[in-house]
C-alpha cells in the first residue's frame, strides 16, 4: 500500500518500501510525523510499524510484528525517539524507541484503588484501544476504548487517573486535545 508524503511544498514522494516487506501488504492504520523533525514519518500498518525518511523516500527502520492489530501511534515529544502504540485487543500500551525493534516498556492500564470519580474498575481492563492522543505539556494521554469509554492515563505516574462510563452508544473513532487548552478533549462517534 503506497502512500505519498510532501517533504517540500508542492512536491509529493511516493513511499512504497522494498518489495517483500510484510507491512506493504497491509493497510495503513495511522501515521505521525516526528514532532522533533519533519524528515521522519512513523507509519503503522495493521501489525507492523515502519520509520520512513521522507526526504530520501526510504525505510529507516522496520519494527518487529506486533501480536495485535495496531490502532494508533503517538510520539512522546519530551523523549528522544520514543513513541506509544495502542492495539485493538487489550488495554496495554507499548512504548517503543526508534533504535530498537521491540517495545522498551509495556503499560497495562489498570485502575488504581481510589481513582478519580467516574472510574469503573475491573470492567475495561481487557477492552481494546481504538485511538489515543498524547499531551506533551501534561505528559499524559487520553485513550478511546472499544467499549465507547474514555481513559486518562498519566505517563509520569504510570497510572490511570480517570475512566469514564461509556458515553457513546457506538465505538469512538477518534479523540483529540484542543491545541489551545490541554484540559479540553473532543471525541467522535456514530452514537449520540
Walk me through the structure:
It is built from no helices and 16 strands. It is globular and about 45 Å long. Helix content is 0%, strand content 49%. By secondary structure, the protein is mainly beta. A hairpin with a 3-residue loop joins strand 4 (40-45) and strand 5 (49-53). A four-stranded antiparallel beta sheet has the order 3-4-5-6, with no helix packed on it. A four-stranded antiparallel beta sheet has the order 7-8-9-10, with no helix packed on it. It has strands at residues 3-8, 11-15, 28-33, 40-45, 49-53, 58-62, 70-75, 82-87, 92-97, 105-108, 129-135, 140-145, 150-154, 159-163, 172-178, 181-189.
What are its keywords?
192 residues; mainly beta; four-stranded antiparallel beta sheet; 49% strand
Structural class: mainly beta
- Please state how the strands of the largest beta sheet are arranged side by side: 3-4-5-6
Report the order of strands and helices.
Answer: EEEEEEEEEEEEEEEE
* Shape estimate: globular
Strand content: over 45%
Mean pLDDT: 79
Through-space gap between termini: 34 Å
Our count of helices gives 0
Largest sheet: 4 strands, antiparallel
Percent helix among the residues? under 10%
- In the predicted model, the low-confidence regions spanning at least 5 consecutive residues are 6-12, 119-123
Quantity of strands, as a count:
16
What is the radius of gyration computed over CA atoms, rounded to a whole number of angstroms?
A: 17 Å
Summarize the structure.
This protein is mostly beta strands and 192 residues long. Helices cover 0% and strands 49% of the residues.
Amino acid at each position: 500500500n503506497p502512500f505519498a508524503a510532501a517533504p517540500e511544498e508542492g512536491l509529493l514522494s511516493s513511499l512504497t518500501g522494498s518489495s517483500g516487506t510484510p507491512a506493504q501488504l497491509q493497510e495503513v492504520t495511522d501515521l505521525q510525523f516526528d514532532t522533533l523533525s519533519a524528515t521522519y514519518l512513523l507509519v503503522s500498518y495493521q501489525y507492523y510499524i515502519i520509520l520512513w525518511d521522507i526526504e530520501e523516500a526510504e525505510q529507516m527502520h522496520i519494527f518487529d510484528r506486533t501480536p495485535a492489530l495496531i490502532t494508533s501511534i503517538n510520539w512522546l515529544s519530551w523523549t528522544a525517539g520514543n513513541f506509544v502504540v495502542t492495539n485493538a485487543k487489550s488495554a496495554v500500551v507499548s512504548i517503543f524507541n526508534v533504535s530498537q525493534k521491540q517495545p522498551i516498556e509495556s503499560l497495562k492500564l489498570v485502575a488504581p484503588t481510589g481513582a478519580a470519580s467516574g472510574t469503573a474498575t475491573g470492567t475495561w481492563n481487557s477492552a481494546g484501544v481504538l485511538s489515543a492522543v498524547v499531551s506533551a505539556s501534561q505528559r499524559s494521554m487520553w485513550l478511546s476504548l472499544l467499549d465507547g469509554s474514555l481513559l486518562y492515563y498519566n505517563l509520569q505516574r504510570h497510572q490511570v487517573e480517570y475512566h469514564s462510563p461509556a458515553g457513546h452508544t457506538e465505538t469512538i473513532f477518534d479523540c483529540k486535545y484542543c491545541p489551545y487548552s490541554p484540559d479540553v478533549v473532543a471525541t467522535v462517534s456514530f452514537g449520540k
